[in-house]
Design goal:
8 strands; 3-stranded antiparallel β-sheet; about 140 residues; 2 domains; alpha+beta; Multidrug-efflux Transporter Regulator, Chain: A, Domain 2
Length: about 140
């Protein structure tokens, strides 16, 4: 059986990769691949001591991999740019400032943000207000 599988691999019929190869292909750590296997998010088979992953299963995992942009809360997208809702990271990129500055601005009340589950959501009106009132301010030289 094992020799048959190796022949199929060599002829190109079935392509399987190891955890190390899967990690390199996905640009993640071996641990991340192993965790995905244990959480049953990535199909894999274990021979005597070695995990093998079919390349089609790896591609399916990559397509369905968790993405913050697809996060839902009560059936609605958390960060919906069409409705004007952004994450802290997105706001930081929009304003060209570090994410920590966005967190700080929300914490001290300079920018409004709302908690939805574990995420902070910021509306575009609040981003514009922060930009106008705090980032575009010019200091007067006395």
């Amino acid at each position: 059986m094992e020799a048959n599988q190796e022949n199929k691999q060599n002829s190109g019929e079935i392509k399987v990769v190891s955890i190390t190869e899967a990690a390199r292909i996905n640009n993640v750590t071996r641990q991340a691949i192993y965790v995905a296997i244990k959480q049953k998010k990535l199909k894999a088979t274990k021979d005597a001591t070695r995990w093998t992953i079919h390349i089609d299963d790896l591609n399916e995992y990559r397509q369905n991999k968790y993405s913050r942009t697809k996060s839902m809360f009560n059936g609605e997208l958390l960060f919906d740019s069409h409705k004007g809702f952004f994450s802290v990271g997105q706001v930081a990129k929009i304003l060209n400032i570090p994410a920590q500055k966005v967190y700080y601005a929300t914490r001290i009340g300079l920018m409004k943000a709302h908690r939805k589950g574990a995420a902070w959501v910021i509306h575009e009106d609040d981003v514009k207000s922060y930009r106008e009132n705090y980032l575009n301010r010019t200091t007067k030289v006395i």
